[in-house]
Amino acid sequence: MAQKASLPQLPNVALEQIFRNLDFLEIQPVRKVCQNLRSYIDNHHRSDSNLKYVSITVERGKFNVNYNFFDEQNKLSVVYENLPGGCFVQSQINGILRETYLEKQDSLEIFCHDFHNFWKNQRRELISFSVEFFGENENSEFLNQCSSLLNDHFPIDQFHLFVTTSNQIIPILKKVDPRCIVINNKNENSENLEFQDFMELNQWRNAERLFIRSFAISAPIQKFDHFKKVSVFFRTASWDDVSYLKEASTLF
């Protein structure tokens, strides 16, 4: 009796026929079977991630990611958390719960590997991308990874940031290209937000809408006049600022 070939032993023609009938989420578990299948999928069958919304929460040693897709049938949420001796991964695909413990692995490393696989295969503009931070200094490693994790100037309609310090804004913002920027300060005490570095970004010049909450703005009011819609807070305003706003409002 002839021995049946396993999936990694099938010729590329047969693999292509199989993967053609699978969507992006269905292919992901196959990538983890072995190195040969992972290499074939990454090099020969890069299907569209088809992402619509992505949200990430960042804590010390823990990352929670939610993916929503344009087909609106598939939903995926994944939690990566460091535990003694390794990383615990809990995923829920369309209501099906899966749990894995990866010995001697780090949550940031596993999260980055999985997220990058989704991000590099995204072909169209995201409707919404959200990142929320818990804590301050413990998130520095995640911010350092952003340069390699995100594609430069990836188009996004709405970009939401929930930060605990203003230092968390630019490292992520400079990697994407949103039409709408929403920045929320999670601290109760509103700190001054210095805009010099912010305003030098192309993202500042290209955005159409800007909403900044619980930060006090320190910048010339004229720097905001290219936005179609703005919601910001100034601690003080000069008479010249008021006159400028009054004159600008009569132009519309």
Fold and architecture overview:
With 252 residues, the chain is an alpha/beta fold. The protein has one domain. 30% of the residues lie in helices and 35% in strands. The protein is built from 9 helices and 11 strands. Strands 1, 2, 3, 4, 5, 6, 7, 8, 9, 10 and 11 form an 11-stranded mixed beta sheet that branches. Strand 1 (51-59) and strand 2 (62-69) form a beta hairpin. The longest helix has 14 residues, at 107-120. The model has no long low-confidence stretch (mean pLDDT 83).
Can you describe this structure in just a few lines?
The protein has 252 residues and is of the alpha/beta class.
Instruction: Please work out how many helical segments DSSP would assign.
Output: 9
Oligomer: single chain
Number of strands: 11
What string gives the helices and strands in order? HHHEEEEEHEHEHEEHHEEH
Using only C-alpha atoms, the radius of gyration works out to 22 Å
Overall geometry = elongated
Mean pLDDT over the full residue set: 83
The end-to-end span amounts to: 82 Å
Q: Main β-sheet, in a few words?
A: 11 strands, mixed
Quickly count the domains. 1
Roughly what percent helix?
Answer: 25-40%
Beta-strand content bin: 35-45%
Organism: Caenorhabditis remanei (Caenorhabditis vulgaris)
Pfam families: F-box, FTH
InterPro entries: DUF38/FTH_CAE_spp, F-box_dom
Protein name: F-box domain-containing protein
